[in-house]
Amino acid sequence: MKLFIGINFKKGIKYHIQDIIMDIKSYSSEGRFASKDYLHLTIEYLGEIPDDNVNDIINIMNKVITRGFTLKMTNLGFFKKRTGDILWIGFKENKRLLGLHNYLHRMLIGKGFELESRPYIPHITIGRDVIMKENFDPDKYIKPLGRIRIKANSIDLIKSEQVNGKLIYTIIHSKKLFIPRNYKNHKHYIMFMVLFLY
User: Fold this and answer.
1) What CATH code would you report for 2-197?
2) Quick one: which H or E segment has residue 144?
């Protein structure tokens, strides 16, 4: 099954982002734009994973010990492609998010998972094969995006699959972000902080 670990958004946030996407779409001549149902922030893309390995992922997620945090959107960006650009929304740097990705990435590799080695750039993909009109001004969206605050209180293991020609996301496991009592003496917390910081 195809899996990734990510942060899901509340409905109100999804509708807010969708309104911005629809406005951006009006300045495009070509492209496929994301539906609100698929809006999320990927922390770690896992790819095709055998069923027997899913519990290893869940066990690693369950060892995460950190408080929830707030994400702030900042700008629009493009990954250039010959057939049309990939359009994305970027985030303000967040040390807790980067530390969380660092921890999961290293723990998963330690368990033998093959992961992408390129630097982690937190973003939401909102368009593919996009060609924008000449009058498009991405700076127009800096203020509207900057007003959006996303509360990250949990992380999800999500299955992506095609069902009758439609992309479906299913949450396999969810882990709340919190710090339990006596956390400083918790061996998993010590390991988490080491990998979180470096």
Assistant:
1) 3.90.1140.10
2) helix 142-146
C-alpha dist (Å) from residue 180 to 9, 147, 188, 189? 24, 31, 11, 10
Q: Where are the domains of the chain?
A: 2-197
CA distance 21 to 1: 29
- Burial class of residue 21, CB neighbours in 10 A (0-12, 13-18, 19+): buried
**52-70 per-position pLDDT tens digit:** 999 999 999 998 888 899 9
What's the predicted TM-score (pTM) here? 0.88
Give the three-class secondary structure for 9: coil
Q: Rounded to whole angstroms, how far apart are CA atoms 122 and 43? A: 7
Tokens describing residue 46: 């896992």
| Residue 99 token pair | 């530390």
Q: Is the pLDDT of residue 150 over 50?
A: yes
β-sheet bridge partners, residue 157: 5, 173
183: left (phi over 0), alpha (psi -120 to 50) or beta: alpha
| Amino acid present at 40 | H
